[in-house]
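Give me a protein, keeping tokens residue-aligned:
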Amino acid sequence: MYKIGELSRQTGLSNDTLRYYEKMALITPATRTEAGYRLYDESSLSRLKFIQQAKYVGFSLEGIKELLSMRLDKSHHSCGEVKQLTEDKLVEIDNKIEELLRIKQALQVMNDACCGGAVSAEHCSILQALETGEPVKREGHL
């Protein structure tokens, strides 16, 4: 059995994060001592490692809840359901990448058009582009 501090050291998660996960019903202590200390077992440690890995690959806490439910009740869920969650996450990530590339391109155009010198910010092409909503025009772009 692990007290919350020991579980924190084992996982690298803060005590506050562990309490938050408990509040979100992602984990539950195996028991509490008479003094009210939370005690966690090996299954809690395993569950937290699962949560950490799912977070690492981009799942939200809601998505992780769904995955945990499937993990706990494997006989009532198919591999296809788990795969669909993963495919949905991939689509979401592709959309974010597209958006980030669009933002990067717009910022790059503004950055490249700016002289960056000691000219007063009153004449800064980046600030002007942001104020007007018009893209910065420079040779070969927009």
The helical segments are 4-11, 15-23, 42-56, 61-72, 79-113, 125-132. The two ends are 62 Å apart (CA to CA). Strands lie at 2-3, 31-32, 38-40. The chain has two domains: 1-58, 91-142.
